[in-house]
Specification:
397 residues; alpha+beta; Cytochrome-c3 Hydrogenase, chain B; 10 strands
């Protein structure tokens, strides 16, 4: 008797699943074009360009003092660090050095921003997981930090706090005590949320072993910030450049070795606690002297030269490159934000995971789309300027 066997040939068929530019899991416009074999992701294309605002050209068309107010508007969450890095580049060109008190106050503003940013992205992660109660609780406690930021800078969000040579506002003993009181209220909440992320199965079942990045992946794809530190890569501009008072205020670079989405979120909780310690140190060791700048005495012309400065926003390395050419405005301002590399270069990290894991992995990178959009139109080798109406009505050619 002859046994007949059938040879089954499997033909791989991938389904294209577009996520974005408008999607419930996305707070800003970007497209993740997923290719899935069943539920498994086999390829990802990341498409940007939906939110370009011409910020760099706006810098170059404005005086460098107006640029102090343009820089914070690149990113609402990371506005103080954008202003800080831009202002330090101007100080580099002008040969200015802030006072010790101004440097300490700058660190205080930057670390308050880091705490509220890390709380925000962890709250969004809870929202993505369907844990709405946790989302609302974190956002409620984040209000302590927003209030502290308002007391320090005068505004909850866009602070307008930095100026070449120092800061725009100082604090007295009353304000210092109020900020310390708010910090004392929020610390036990930070510790509680960290423990909850580590132990609650609603969170752990979705984050552990999802979106694993090896240290080699991080380095090859130029990933920065908590994304890199969550994979054991010890990189932090605050430690490398020690700008402002980061060389005097004691703190530690937080890293974890797991490399998954959980590690990236826990790095942020640990960093929030480190930032809390730094804020307390600044407030209890604040140097005397003058911190506020008399803006009327600042020079109005930018000397010829180049300046390159870096900073460490909540998302990773931020760089500003400015060219002055002896006028009241810069010749060139080039900005590179952490999401520019973290989002565009991270397509490989979704492969092998399920479609349901995609929002979790994306949120673990803490994406900021508005700050990463850059575009320059060059046709036939010549740069062309467009009005907003022309840019909005452009068609593919």
């Amino acid at each position: 008797m002859t046994l007949l066997t059938e040879a089954v040939v499997k033909i791989p068929i991938s389904l294209e699943v577009p996520v974005g530019p408008q999607h419930p899991a996305l707070h800003e416009p970007v497209v993740l074009k997923l290719y899935a074999d069943g539920e498994e992701i086999v390829n990802v294309e990341i498409l940007t360009g939906y939110n370009h605002r011409g910020i760099e050209k706006l810098f170059e068309m404005s005086s460098f003092y107006k640029g102090v107010f343009i820089a914070p508007r690149i990113c609402g969450i990371c506005n103080t660090i954008h202003a800080n890095v831009y202002v330090r580049a101007i100080e580099q060109l002008l040969g200015m050095e802030p006072s010790p008190r101004a440097k300490y106050l700058r660190v205080l503003a930057l670390e308050l921003e880091r705490i509220h940013s890390h709380m925000l992205i962890n709250a969004i992660m809870a929202e993505i997981l369907g844990y709405d109660t946790l989302f609302m609780l974190i956002m409620r406690d984040r209000e302590y930090i927003m209030k502290a930021k308002e007391i320090l800078t005068g505004n909850r969000v866009t602070s307008e706090y930095f100026m070449p040579g120092g800061v725009r506002r100082d604090i007295d003993d009353t304000k210092r005590e109020r900020i310390l009181d708010l910090l004392k209220r929020v610390k036990p909440r930070l510790e509680y949320y960290k423990k909850l992320f580590e132990t609650d199965p609603t969170v752990t079942n979705r984050l552990i072993d999802v979106g694993v990045l090896k240290p080699r992946d991080v380095v090859l794809h130029s990933l920065v910030g908590p994304v890199a530190r969550g994979s054991g890569v010890k990189t932090d501009v605050r430690a490398e450049d020690r700008y402002d008072a980061y060389g005097e205020v004691p703190w530690n670079v937080v890293t974890r070795r797991e490399g998954d989405s959980m590690a990236r979120m826990l790095v942020r909780w640990d960093e929030a606690l480190e930032s809390w310690n730094m804020c307390e140190y600044v407030l209890t060791h604040l140097p005397g002297g003058q911190a506020v700048v008399d803006e009327r005495k600042l020079p109005r012309v930018l000397p010829p030269g180049e300046a390159y400065t870096r900073g460490e926003p909540p998302r990773g390395e931020l760089t500003y490159y400015i060219i002055g050419y002896g006028r009241d405005r810069p010749y060139r301002v080039k900005v590179r934000t952490p999401s520019f590399t973290n989002i565009i270069n991270s397509g490989f990290s979704y492969i092998g995971y399920s479609i349901a894991d995609v929002p979790v992995i994306l949120v673990s990178y803490d994406p900021c789309i508005a700050c990463m959009e850059r575009a320059v139109l060059i046709k036939n080798g010549e740069e062309k300027r467009l009005t907003l109406k022309e840019l909005a009505n452009m068609k593919k050619r």
